[in-house]
């Protein structure tokens, strides 16, 4: 999908007294104008269509958007027919509140920590969980993946996962030091996993990969993964005290 019309930015949304210092998502507003995203490469709405997301992953589903940022994915999930959407991020975002109100949305927004297992359990189970652009920002991203697996409905829940990743043929996860010379990321990032590592780790803890896509350079990967519960999963949970 290519956008043929020029993107017009709503300059009123750049007011630092009313909004967060920066917008990340391009979101088309009711006026036809867009939010002033710092991610100027292309519209995030365009990107979603290249990630192999489908309406079926949202229609009639209970959806959790982890690291929701400005709220584009949450609003999109609702517009694509989700019965309930919960959006979480690790700190309060004025932009998210504005977007929810702007679209008269029923999205529920909470400040929560994905690595806090008890907080996450309080949200209940989900059919679809969006986990985009968060993994590499977490000190313990593997704990987050375990929590996501446990939040998905058994044998059928879907995680839509996007992360920076390298094309290393080894199964590893590289720590990002302050002097890291290759990472296309900022100082809030801790890790760059390899695609091989992500594939093997997700499979080992009980996910079945239904889609893996790589693009936009050597540091990008997207996954659709279904949570599969079996005897090995229960044994693993017991051994880990989960």
What does this protein look like?
With 242 residues, the protein is an alpha/beta fold. It has one domain (47-239): Rossmann fold. The chain is 24% helix and 19% strand. The protein contains 7 helices and 9 strands; from the N terminus they run αβαβαβαβαβββαββα. The protein has helices spanning 44-50, 72-79, 94-102, 117-121, 141-151, 195-204, 231-239, and strands at residues 62-66, 84-89, 108-111, 128-132, 158-163, 173-175, 191-193, 207-214, 221-227. A 7-stranded mixed sheet has the order 3-2-1-4-5-9-8, sandwiched between helices. It has a two-stranded antiparallel ribbon with strand order 6-7. The longest helix has 11 residues, at 141-151. The chain is globular, with a radius of gyration of 18 Å. The N and C termini lie far apart (43 Å). The model has no long low-confidence stretch (mean pLDDT 83).
In order across it, which strands form the biggest sheet? 3-2-1-4-5-9-8
- Fraction of residues in H or I helices: 10-25%
What share of residues are in beta strands?
A: 15-25%
Spatial extent as radius of gyration: 18 Å
Give a count of the beta strands, DSSP E runs of length 2 or more: 9
Q: What is the average per-residue confidence, as pLDDT, rounded to a whole number?
A: 83
CATH architecture: 3-Layer(aba) Sandwich
How would the global form be characterised? globular
Secondary-structure-derived class: alpha/beta
Distance N terminus to C terminus?
A: 43 Å
For the record, what is the CATH homologous superfamily label? Vaccinia Virus protein VP39
Main sheet overview: 7 strands, mixed
């Amino acid at each position: 999908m290519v956008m043929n019309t020029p993107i017009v930015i709503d300059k009123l949304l750049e007011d630092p007294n009313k909004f967060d210092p920066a917008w990340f998502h391009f979101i088309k507003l009711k006026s036809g104008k867009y939010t002033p995203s710092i991610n100027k490469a292309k519209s995030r709405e365009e990107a979603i269509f290249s990630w192999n997301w489908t309406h079926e992953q949202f229609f009639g589903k209970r959806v959790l958007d982890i690291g929701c940022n400005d709220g584009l994915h949450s609003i999109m999930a609702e517009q694509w027919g989700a019965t309930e959407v919960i959006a979480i991020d690790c700190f309060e975002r004025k932009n998210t509140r504005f977007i929810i109100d702007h679209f008269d949305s029923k999205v529920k927004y909470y400040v929560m920590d994905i690595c806090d297992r008890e907080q996450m359990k309080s949200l209940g189970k989900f059919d679809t969980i969006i986990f985009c652009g968060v993994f590499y920002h977490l000190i313990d991203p593997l704990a987050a993946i375990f929590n996501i697996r446990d939040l998905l409905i058994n044998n059928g829940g879907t995680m839509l996962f996007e992360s920076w990743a390298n094309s290393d043929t080894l199964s590893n996860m590289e720590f990002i030091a302050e002097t890291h010379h290759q990472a296309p990321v900022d100082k809030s990032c801790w890790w760059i996993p390899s695609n091989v590592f992500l594939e093997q780790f997700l499979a080992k803890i009980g996910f079945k990969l239904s889609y893996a896509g790589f693009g936009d350079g050597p540091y990008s990967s997207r996954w659709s993964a279904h949570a599969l519960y079996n005897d090995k999963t229960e044994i693993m949970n017991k051994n880990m005290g989960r």
